[in-house]
């Protein structure tokens, strides 16, 4: 009741108040941003989301190693701690480094056991030379943000997997697939949803009823078995790129329902709004009503809904891949990485194999916070 | 709280209890003293109630009146500590003394969840709210609400409580109380729900009833019956009443004392007759002047005396006297700097204003009347307007051709049901309506909510598809005619700019994403804007900008506002934008659908004046749809009364108001509260039963016969013999007994 | 009320029919059939493949028939004889395989629903009534985490925790049952808390709450009897989205925890193109969901007079 903005200007007041003037001519997106900015969690979500996508884009540069770099001497090597100062000697010895391993084989179980050796110092540097790669698939380069100065000595900041591959690098590389599955899947679901929702909302009547019943039918189905069934239908001999797209199609096929419903609902209610009727009475044609009045009125809501459906996609991809029905190695995604952590025995030996899960949780939390903030800010005119 | 301070308070309350109501010998049951209720928000502390003094006298009705946002509801709720966070009673005392023999208690000191306050709530003080339907839980029957309250505050057992509940329902005039006992709130009409709320509030015989805008959400006929009920019950039980309202007509009808509030403060306190006869605060004066009513000499004033500007948001209250920016008598250096002192004007009257302060303005200076704002000067603009801008005299209809001729117009809505949403029936919102609108006139369309007046208006501008009938339009200066109902799509476009509409809700009818330039300029871009530039013109075109700037100036907004978005404007200003948007295409007919209903009294007067000026300037023809009969009487030349989708009476305004010929019109007129306490109790009160028949299944014969006091069995309820509007030039009526019955008009 | 019930049951028939068709189409989607899988496996293990025998099997299982004939045989068997067909891989009747595992699946699902409601109701009420309190923030945080954590990850973490405390984590034990319920219920609980909190916050602002306060109704009664009663309704209808999610989660959690439910069976059947088995499990899950939704609609109509009467 008393939260509405205080800057309403009376007809007699001078527009001398600059803040009020700025508010008066602020467009919708500016108002949305003003609201969004005040939402601390949402801002944090936005920053983390941006960071995650930056990692996805610059993965090759940020990761010390490529996805296939392996060293089978170091099966399940534990994480090394990044240190700045070495106090093992008499002096304080400055310089970024990790401690190397000493390996022993347990005489009874024959399992390889690692201990970090404070005397074995592996110097670490920024912008070091390493494996060659092509940034964005275009620019050949061999520098990595962080890595051992001598590229032959291994470094496992987050430990190694069964084949001695660097978990840290692989999580970074997995970001790209995991985060883009969400985006692409949502984009496809969005197209389907907006098409059917729009058709349903626009034509109304019988068409609407049929589409609504179809949506209800889809919504009453347990999604995972459907996903599983569809994923199982993907031919096994498909390459990783085809498989990637097939999986996103499968994910979006099931996710469009919620979007369609949302789009339709908003469409229906906006069609009855006075300002839409008013535009119609100006003699505005239907296409312009839709693209000039109705659609712009819910783009901000739509963006929020889309943001909030990305996490579902990411979770689904992770689950499918974890079960072995989604993406397959050598493609690296967080779900594929988690496949390695299938049983308790492995987890007890190498708990760091669960770390891709942490990446999943962080990304999803960030997206949820961002989406919630967007949803709250989407209608800046409501008080 | 110590016994010591308690005693002190008691003595204070004794004193204030001794203070007499003006012209009456009551004693106080409730004394509010320096009440401050503040809301802590992100933007700072909002002082919604800021030092209110108020007294309710035993057995009397005290009215609190003010525009929206003045803090009257918050005051009422503070009494029972019904304020939610972030709101808080910051200061002040509320002394409650239902029994003169017992010491008064300060309600603000009681524990929110304590036994004592709970006993006061519902037991000693009953409360009725604005939205009756929403104030009852949809999960429980009417009876269980009542029984719960009765059991809570009395020692009755369950069975006795049920008897008592049924008795209460009967007392508030609910027919078949035994059956309604088991009804859910959503099965009852709004009026019935309000009766249930009153029964609930009175079930434990409280000493005071607080009624917070109890009739605002109801139709005028229902309002009249609820007011009758409250007055009757007050007489019967001798309870006191604190009545919150924004409607000065209601105040004149029921109040003994009145407190006028403005921005969280009481600006005037007086007995009802004194207040209406001789208002002492400029705000009260202005408020009274801005209600449309007959002048002192019985003449209809052409223009209302509007207060400039709008009520500011409580968060940015002006310094000094908070009314000074809108006050015509404001004295620079005094009113904008110092708060006016509270001076007793004798007889217990209070009107804090510097004009009454001998120090700043000399003793006993009488308040000058507000000047009527001058008619806005018509500026000649395009070549089109240069011809006859002279004021249109009252239209003489004889021999004139109507500009719009509506014939046999029906609008039906399908009722859909089931899995496949099949159409299972139709509601005839408008059925077989004939209506003529003549050039230059203002035709009023009145009726209760649900009578089809909005549907009719919307189908005339073709926002709705008529099911049957014709709407013949004759453009001014041409002999050609065109049936708008038969046109569709592109063929209709040229006429879209001739027949325009102003919407009710200033907040939903403007696209918030567009600047005023885009909003007002958009109709110009559409093909067929006869006097505007050709289609395809860009909104940012400088000619468009010029036209928009000029239009803004004409509706009283600054041209530079065209770069702003609607969110920067108040309701009244937005309504000006809506008017600009309707008029930019230079239409000949404008349908104003409840165009001033959402506005506060003072702003409403501004908009009514503006509409009047523009009608003269642009030679407009208005179809003015409103539920507010006093506004209709003020602005309309002729009036059509609608009931359940039919026009039942059509006449010149004076003729209709003085000598209505349809029993429904008579009842409507009789229900309108007059803003003049001297007229209280004059004339016969005609009250309609609350329930409107189901519009999906209208009664056979005359649709009004179920509520009509003149209905004759076998005549009025005969199917297939429904009365038709007999055309008798100036006054036609659709009543089978019109010849035999004597009806009463406005006094 | 009876009419309402009959109408709802009649609506179910076309829905179930469409679902069964959809399921069958999905099962048929993978190229080849069960026998192709067998052939591939046999070739991989170096065994010879007898074409004649394959053809014989194909005819015997009806795999050489057009798809609609196969569908009709399957669905008519289910409807008229409760015969869900034959599992190629297990060499057993699908009905006996499923009957073996279904009770545990249903038990876990039902207990999870109860757990979800039992957790979400009080927490939701608390969070709404004490909005912005420390407790509210605590539960909101837990809720966000609950939604963001994949349930198999949670299962792995809990099992790891249990294992490091020396518990046995293989197969079924009371402790593992609890873990399964907690893991399955977390996401739903988190979602429901948010729903309950938002609904109750809306209801608390309604005029009837102030009106009840003004009548002097005591605080606790005023809260439970008035707004909570209304906010409960979406709670009951939440089963509509709770159940599909639960059945999905059950598949994956049971596989991770190696529980003796239909989940791991479905996974294997899908991998091996054991179509009648897979199809039947998905169909049963869908039917259970639809029935659950129906029950919740009935409960809602019983609870809410607005639905019952209109």
Automatic annotation (TrEMBL), chain A:
Transmembrane segments: 41-63, 177-203, 215-235, 241-259, 352-371
Gene3D superfamilies xref list: MetI-like
Entries under SUPFAM superfamilies matching the protein: MetI-like
Keyword Membrane: yes
Top-rank taxon, per record: Bacteria
Annotated GO CC locations: plasma membrane
InterPro entries, per database record: MetI-like (IPR000515), MetI-like_sf (IPR035906), OppC_N (IPR025966)
A GO BP annotation: transmembrane transport
Entry-linked Pfam families: BPD_transp_1, OppC_N
Keywords per UniProt: Membrane, Transmembrane, Transmembrane helix, Transport
Subcellular location: Cell membrane; Membrane
ABC transmembrane type-1 domain boundaries: 175-371
Membrane topology summary: Multi-pass membrane protein
Keyword Transport recorded: yes
Family the UniProt entry places it in: Belongs to the binding-protein-dependent transport system permease family.
PANTHER family: OLIGOPEPTIDE ABC TRANSPORTER, PERMEASE PROTEIN (PTHR43839:SF3), OPPC IN A BINDING PROTEIN-DEPENDENT TRANSPORT SYSTEM (PTHR43839)
Name of this protein: Peptide/nickel transport system permease protein
Organism taxonomic ancestry: Bacteria, Bacillati, Actinomycetota, Actinomycetes, Jiangellales
Automatic annotation (TrEMBL), chain B:
GO MF: ATP binding; ATP hydrolysis activity
Record's keyword terms, sorted: ATP-binding, Nucleotide-binding, Transport
Record family assignment: Belongs to the ABC transporter superfamily.
Cross-referenced Pfam families: ABC_tran, oligo_HPY
Residue ranges annotated for the ABC transporter domain, each copy included: 29-288, 404-669
Name of this protein: Peptide/nickel transport system ATP-binding protein
Protein biosynthesis in keyword set: no
GO biological process, one term: transmembrane transport
UniProt-listed CDD domains: ABC_NikE_OppD_transporters
Region described as Disordered: spans on this chain: 1-25, 667-700
Statement: the UniProt record of this protein carries the keyword Ion transport: no
Matches recorded under SUPFAM superfamilies: P-loop containing nucleoside triphosphate hydrolases
TrEMBL record, chain C:
One annotated Gene Ontology cellular component of this protein: plasma membrane
Its membrane topology: Multi-pass membrane protein
Membrane-crossing segments per the record: 9-29, 104-125, 137-163, 175-196, 230-256, 276-303
Gene3D superfamilies, per database record: MetI-like (1.10.3720.10)
Annotated Pfam families: BPD_transp_1 (PF00528), BPD_transp_1_N (PF19300)
Compartments where located: Cell membrane
A Gene Ontology BP annotation from the UniProt entry: transmembrane transport
Signal peptide positions (record): none
Keyword presence, Nuclease: no
Swiss-Prot/TrEMBL keywords: Cell membrane, Membrane, Transmembrane, Transmembrane helix, Transport
SUPFAM superfamilies the UniProt entry points to: MetI-like
Domain of life: Bacteria
Stretches assigned to the ABC transmembrane type-1 domain: 102-299
Entry's family note: Belongs to the binding-protein-dependent transport system permease family.
PANTHER family with a match to the protein in the record: INNER MEMBRANE ABC TRANSPORTER, OLIGOPEPTIDE ABC TRANSPORTER, PERMEASE PROTEIN
Name of this protein: Peptide/nickel transport system permease protein
Source organism per UniProt: Haloactinopolyspora alba
């Amino acid at each position: 009741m008393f939260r509405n903005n205080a800057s309403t200007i009376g007809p007699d007041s001078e527009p001398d108040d600059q803040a009020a003037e700025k508010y008066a001519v602020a467009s919708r997106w500016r108002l949305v941003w003003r609201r969004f900015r005040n939402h601390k969690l949402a801002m944090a979500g936005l920053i983390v989301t941006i960071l995650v996508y930056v990692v996805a884009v610059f993965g090759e540069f940020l990761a010390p190693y490529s996805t296939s770099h392996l060293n089978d001497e170091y099966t399940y090597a534990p994480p090394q701690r990044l240190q700045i100062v070495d106090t093992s000697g008499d002096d304080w010895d400055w310089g970024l480094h990790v401690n190397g391993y000493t390996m022993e084989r347990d005489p009874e179980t024959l399992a390889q056991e690692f201990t970090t050796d404070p005397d074995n110092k592996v110097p670490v540097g920024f912008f070091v030379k390493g494996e060659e790669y092509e940034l964005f698939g275009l620019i050949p380069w061999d520098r990595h943000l962080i890595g051992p100065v001598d590229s032959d000595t291994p470094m496992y900041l987050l430990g190694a997997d069964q084949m001695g591959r660097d978990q840290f690098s692989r999580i970074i590389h997995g970001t790209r697939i995991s985060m883009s599955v969400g985006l692409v899947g949502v984009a496809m679901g969005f197209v389907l949803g907006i098409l059917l929702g729009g058709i349903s909302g626009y034509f109304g009547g019988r068409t609407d009823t049929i589409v609504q019943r179809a949506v209800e039918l889809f919504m009453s189905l347990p999604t995972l078995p459907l996903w599983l069934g569809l994923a199982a239908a993907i031919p096994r001999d498909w390459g990783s790129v085809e498989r990637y797209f097939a999986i996103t199609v499968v994910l979006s096929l099931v996710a469009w329902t919620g979007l369609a419903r949302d789009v339709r609902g908003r469409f229906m209610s906006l069609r009855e709004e006075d300002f839409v009727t008013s535009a119609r009475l100006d003699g505005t044609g239907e296409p312009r009503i839709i693209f000039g009045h109705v659609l712009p009125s819910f783009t901000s809501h739509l963006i929020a809904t889309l943001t909030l459906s990305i996490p579902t996609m990411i979770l689904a991809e992770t689950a499918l891949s974890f079960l072995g029905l989604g993406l397959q190695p050598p493609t690296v995604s967080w779900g594929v990485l988690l496949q390695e952590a299938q049983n308790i025995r492995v987890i007890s030996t190498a708990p760091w194999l669960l770390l891709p899960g942490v990446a999943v949780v962080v990304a999803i939390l960030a997206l949820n916070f961002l989406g919630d903030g967007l949803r709250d800010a989407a209608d800046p005119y409501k008080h | 709280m110590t016994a010591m301070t308690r005693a002190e308070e008691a003595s204070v309350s004794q004193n204030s209890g001794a203070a007499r109501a003006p012209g009456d010998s009551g004693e106080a049951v409730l004394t509010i003293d320096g009440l401050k209720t503040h809301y802590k928000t992100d933007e700072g502390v909002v002082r919604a109630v800021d030092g209110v003094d108020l007294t309710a006298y035993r057995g009397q009705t005290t009215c609190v009146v003010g525009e929206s946002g003045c803090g009257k509801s918050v005051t009422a709720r503070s009494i029972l500590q019904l304020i939610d966070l972030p709101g808080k009673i910051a200061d002040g005392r509320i002394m409650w003394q239902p029994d003169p023999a017992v010491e008064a208690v300060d309600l603000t000191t009681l524990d929110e969840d304590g036994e004592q306050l709970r006993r006061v709530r519902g037991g000693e003080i009953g409360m009725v709210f604005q939205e009756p339907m929403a104030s009852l839980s949809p999960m429980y029957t009417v009876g269980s609400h009542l029984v719960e309250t009765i059991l809570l505050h009395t020692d009755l057992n369950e069975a006795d409580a049920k008897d008592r509940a049924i008795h209460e329902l009967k007392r508030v005039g609910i027919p078949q109380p035994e059956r309604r006992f088991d009804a859910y709130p959503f099965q009852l009409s709004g009026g019935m729900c309000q009766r249930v709320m009153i029964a609930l509030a009175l079930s434990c015989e409280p000493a005071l009833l607080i009624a917070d805008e109890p009739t605002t959400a109801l139709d005028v006929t229902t309002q009249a019956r609820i007011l009758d009920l409250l007055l009757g019950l007050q007489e019967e039980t001798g309870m006191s009443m604190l009545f919150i309202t924004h409607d000065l007509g209601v105040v004149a009808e029921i109040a003994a004392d009145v407190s006028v509030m403005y921005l969280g403060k009481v600006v005037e306190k007086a007995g009802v007759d004194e207040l209406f006869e001789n208002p002492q605060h400029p705000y009260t004066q202005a408020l009274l002047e801005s209600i449309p009513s007959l002048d002192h000499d019985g003449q209809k004033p052409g223009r209302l005396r509007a207060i400039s500007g709008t009520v500011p948001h409580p968060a940015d209250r002006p310094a000094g006297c908070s009314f000074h920016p809108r006050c015509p008598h404001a004295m620079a250096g005094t009113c904008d700097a110092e708060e006016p002192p509270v001076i007793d004007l004798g007889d217990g009257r209070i009107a804090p204003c510097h004009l009454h302060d001998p120090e700043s303005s000399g003793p006993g200076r009488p308040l000058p009347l507000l000047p009527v704002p001058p008619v806005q000067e018509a500026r000649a603009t395009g070549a089109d307007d240069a011809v006859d801008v002279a004021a249109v005299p009252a239209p003489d209809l004889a021999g004139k051709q109507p500009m719009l001729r509506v014939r046999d117009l029906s609008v039906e809505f399908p009722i859909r049901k089931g899995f496949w949403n099949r159409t299972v029936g139709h509601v005839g919102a408008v059925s077989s309506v004939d209506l003529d609108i003549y050039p230059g006139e203002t035709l009023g369309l009145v009726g209760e909510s649900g009578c089809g007046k909005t549907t009719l208006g919307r189908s005339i501008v073709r926002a709705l598809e008529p099911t049957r009938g014709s709407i013949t339009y004759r453009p001014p200066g041409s002999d050609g005619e065109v049936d708008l109902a038969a046109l569709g799509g592109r063929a209709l476009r040229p006429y879209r700019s001739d027949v325009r509409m102003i919407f009710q809700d200033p907040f939903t009818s403007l696209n918030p994403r567009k600047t005023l330039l885009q909003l007002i300029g958009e109709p110009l871009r559409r093909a067929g804007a006869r006097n505007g530039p050709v289609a395809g013109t860009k909104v940012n075109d400088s000619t468009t900008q010029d036209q928009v700037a000029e239009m803004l100036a004409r509706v009283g907004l600054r041209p530079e506002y065209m770069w702003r978005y609607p969110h920067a404007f108040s309701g009244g200003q937005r309504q000006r934008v809506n008017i600009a948007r309707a008029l930019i295409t230079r239409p000949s007919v404008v349908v104003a659908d409840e165009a001033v209903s959402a506005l506060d009294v003072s702003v409403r007067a501004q908009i009514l004046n503006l509409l009047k000026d523009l009608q003269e300037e642009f030679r407009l023809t208005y179809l003015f749809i409103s539920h507010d009969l006093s506004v209709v009487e003020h602005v309309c030349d002729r009036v059509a009364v609608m009931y359940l989708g039919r026009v039942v009476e059509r006449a010149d305004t004076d003729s209709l108001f003085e000598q209505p010929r349809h029993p429904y019109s008579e009842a409507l007129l009789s229900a309108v509260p007059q803003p003049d306490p001297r007229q209280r109790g004059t004339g016969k009160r005609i009250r309609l039963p609350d329930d409107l028949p189901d519009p999906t299944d209208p009664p056979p014969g005359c649709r009004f016969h179920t509520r009509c006091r003149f209905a004759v069995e076998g005549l009025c309820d005969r199917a297939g013999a429904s009365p038709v509007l007999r055309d008798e030039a100036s006054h036609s009526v659709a009543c089978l007994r019109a010849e035999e019955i004597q009806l009463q008009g406005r006094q | 009320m009876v009419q309402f019930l009959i109408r709802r049951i009649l609506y179910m028939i076309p829905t179930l029919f469409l679902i069964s068709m959809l399921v069958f189409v999905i099962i048929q989607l993978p190229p080849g059939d069960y026998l192709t899988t067998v052939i591939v496996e046999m070739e991989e293990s170096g065994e010879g493949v007898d074409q004649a025998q394959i053809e014989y099997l194909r005819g015997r299982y009806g795999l050489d028939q057009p798809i609609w004939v196969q569908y009709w045989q399957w669905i008519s068997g289910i409807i008229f004889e409760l015969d869900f067909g034959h599992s190629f891989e297990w060499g057993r009747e699908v009905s006996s395989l499923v009957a073996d595992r279904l009770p545990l699946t249903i038990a876990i699902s039902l207990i999870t629903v109860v757990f979800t409601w039992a957790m979400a109701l009080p927490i939701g009420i608390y969070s709404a009534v004490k909005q912005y309190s420390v407790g509210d923030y605590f539960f909101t945080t837990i809720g966000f985490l609950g939604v963001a954590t994949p349930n198999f990850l949670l299962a792995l973490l809990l099992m790891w925790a249990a294992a490091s405390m020396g518990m046995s984590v293989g197969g079924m034990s009371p402790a593992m049952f609890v873990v399964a319920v907690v893991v399955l219920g977390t996401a739903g609980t988190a979602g429901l808390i948010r729903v309950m909190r938002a609904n109750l916050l809306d209801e608390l602002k309604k005029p009837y709450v102030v009106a009840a306060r003004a009548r002097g109704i005591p605080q606790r009664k005023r809260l439970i009897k008035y707004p909570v009663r209304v906010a409960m309704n979406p709670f009951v209808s939440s089963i509509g989205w709770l159940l599909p999610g639960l059945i999905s989660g059950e598949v994956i959690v049971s596989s991770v925890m190696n529980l003796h439910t239909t989940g791991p069976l479905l996974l294997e059947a899908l991998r091996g193109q054991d179509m009648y088995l897979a199809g039947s499990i998905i169909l049963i899950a869908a039917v259970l969901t639809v029935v659950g939704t129906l029950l919740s609609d009935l409960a809602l109509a019983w609870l809410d007079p607005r639905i019952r009467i209109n």
